[in-house]
Amino acid sequence: MAAPILGAEAVRKKIDVQYLELGMYVAELDRPWLGTPFLFQGFEIRSEAELLELKRLCKWVHVDSADAHRAMSAPRRAAVPTAPARPQPAIQTEAEQRVAREILKIINQPRAQPVYTDKCEIEQEIPTAREHVSVARTLIYQILDDVRTGKNIDSISAKRVVGALAESVIRNPDALTCFIQLKNKDEYTAQHSMRVCILALAFGRHLGLDRETLEMLGAGALLHDVGKMKVPNEILNKPASLTDYEFSLMKSHVPRGVELLERMPGIPRPAIEVARCHHERYAGSGYISGLTGDQIGFFGMIGGIVDCYDAVTSDRAYRAGMSAHAALKQMYEWRGRDFHPGLVEQFIQCMGIYPIGSVVELNTGEIAVVVTMNRVRRLKPRVTLVLNANCAPYNTPVTVDLMNHKTSDGRACEIDRVLEPGMYGIDPVRYLPVIDPTRLLRPTAHAATRA
């Protein structure tokens, strides 16, 4: 069966990504280039990894007419089931290697004695964390609905919920951090608000903030985007670039949110600063006020970091999210321009070089999901083994601690690299303790499919 041609131009053809082949020249994507990992606006497909990434991110692309004709004319062969192809690691540029080395130094540098220490294991905290997340989710939907319909925000319930989340984070932050992996792009604003609250609390704990300050920060993070309920949904969810007018409406969610919060009794002023300043940027390129440096304020700078991190790691209507590992590297490169350099480094330490939910390849060739951080040895987290060295799924996934797990020949087991979300059809959430192990599903038999 010939590949259908979906459109035509003088030198380009629009084709479905399933018909792409090595050697084709991709001239245009179905999404903005900026939100993709491709360095050049137009490139020849030279590797299976690039081919898989195009199929993961796009539904169709424009290619040279001759390439499209080749795809259209070539006879389609019946698919033969094969084991998943192991994607080859991309060759890093000198700049990328430098950033990787610098981040390793940050992760491994000596740290001051922490203010907080874990009070329990993650498995003990998960049931309580699950209950708090359920209550928080219900509350944030109610708050956003109240804002949409002009009702007052229930600030008393918000403070109570944030207090419970803070208690959980103080006992063991990894439990709630697991729950930020639960994402639905069709419910982005509400779930984003809850995830940003959890991230802010975990970051605040890492920074050693006292309980009262922690709760003010968490309240501001939970409510930072309430002004979006005054922005039309068609703008919030528009898959294409916004016009200047649409972007001005989008930016208006900041002053609208601040105005709403300032009218509410019981919302502390530092919490409002999270809403006011989470889109300000360190060198002055942000909005609404174009603040620079310390003008942004401590809460505003933290809000900007955790808001950005969750946004770039989440699937949106207009682009796919990147891996947490890639996001941290990107934010490190943005330090001094977008974010306070010291706070970005502290955030990287807080999240770890391999954040919970990361899909990683071990030096054994096995594929695993990071399930728990090691706050002493950051490069040695606990992981759940998902695929063996032949890329075949384990019948029963096994969780191991890389501190003492060995290779078959007795060497230390280590993480070789982080894979992009969706690689090998793996949904990390299925292997985190937020899910009952008896409900685990085996990953799909083909690579690079978003679960």
Report on the architecture of this protein:
With 451 residues, the protein is of the alpha+beta class. It folds into three domains: 5-73, no CATH class; 94-351, Orthogonal Bundle (Hypothetical protein af1432), CATH 1.10.3210; 359-439, no CATH class. It is 41% helix and 11% strand. It contains 15 helices and ten strands. It has helices at 48-57, 65-73, 94-108, 122-148, 155-171, 173-179, 188-207, 211-222, 233-236, 244-251, 253-263, 269-277, 298-312, 324-333, 341-351; strands spanning 5-8, 12-16, 25-29, 43-44, 60-64, 359-362, 367-372, 382-387, 393-401, 415-419. Helix 4 runs antiparallel to helix 5, helix 7 packs across helix 15 (341-351) and helix 11 (253-263) packs antiparallel against helix 12. The longest helix is centred in the N-terminal third of the chain and has 27 residues, at 122-148. It is globular.
Key features of this structure:
alpha+beta; 3 domains; 5-stranded antiparallel beta sheet; 15 helices; 11% strand; single chain; 451 residues; Hypothetical protein af1432; disordered N terminus; 10 strands
Reconstruct the topology from this structure.
Layout: E1 5-8, E2 12-16, E3 25-29, E4 43-44, H1 48-57, E5 60-64, H2 65-73, H3 94-108, H4 122-148, H5 155-171, H6 173-179, H7 188-207, H8 211-222, H9 233-236, H10 244-251, H11 253-263, H12 269-277, H13 298-312, H14 324-333, H15 341-351, E6 359-362, E7 367-372, E8 382-387, E9 393-401, E10 415-419
Antiparallel strand pairs: 1-2, 2-5, 3-4, 3-5, 6-7, 6-10, 7-8, 8-9
